[in-house]
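queue> pop job 88
queue> type: inverse folding (structure -> sequence)
queue> payload:
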């Protein structure tokens, strides 16, 4: 892929991220994305079929960013909490309460599953209580699904409370649960 191609694709992705900081996914049009990225419609369609395929790339981009920027995150839970705190408006605008046609949580669930799977194979993450639950399980894939379901439930709780639960409260509660279960 050429540098120009990479730069254009990244420009479109970051335009969508910027728009999702401002308004719900459902209210964003391809025209909005093109205006934000300073491209025309034909350029957009050269890279993406529609805004849903772009959203998939946005999630992948954010996942890569999340996995690559873990320097100060001690556990997966704190990593996810960091992501949600950094992207609170984004999370708010993809939440089901703002969509009539699209439930974007399955995509978010898929991202969390990928994070947990990647971390479960990372030697540096083996002291994480959540990872211990997975590695000590007779059925790691089922345990990953259980954990991700629980994390999605917590995100839904945060959404129901307008993301006004403190970062510390979220971390303490979630890590406490996983620490107790991993023993």
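queue> result:
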């Amino acid at each position: 892929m050429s540098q120009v191609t990479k730069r254009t694709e990244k420009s479109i992705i970051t335009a969508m991220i910027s728009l999702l900081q401002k308004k719900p996914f459902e209210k964003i049009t391809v025209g909005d994305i093109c205006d934000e990225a300073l491209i025309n419609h034909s350029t957009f369609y050269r890279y993406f079929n529609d805004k849903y395929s772009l959203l998939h790339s946005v999630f992948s981009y954010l996942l890569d960013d999340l996995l690559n920027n873990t320097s100060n995150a001690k556990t997966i839970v704190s990593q996810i909490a960091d992501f949600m705190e950094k992207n609170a408006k984004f999370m708010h605008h993809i939440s089901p309460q703002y969509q009539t046609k699209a439930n974007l949580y399955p995509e978010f669930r898929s991202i969390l599953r990928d994070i947990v799977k990647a971390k479960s194979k990372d030697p540096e993450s083996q002291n994480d209580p959540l990872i211990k639950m997975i590695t000590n399980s007779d059925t790691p894939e089922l345990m990953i699904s259980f954990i991700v379901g629980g994390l999605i439930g917590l995100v839904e709780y945060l959404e129901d409370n307008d993301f006004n639960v403190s970062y510390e409260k979220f971390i303490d509660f979630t890590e406490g649960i996983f620490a107790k279960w991993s023993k």
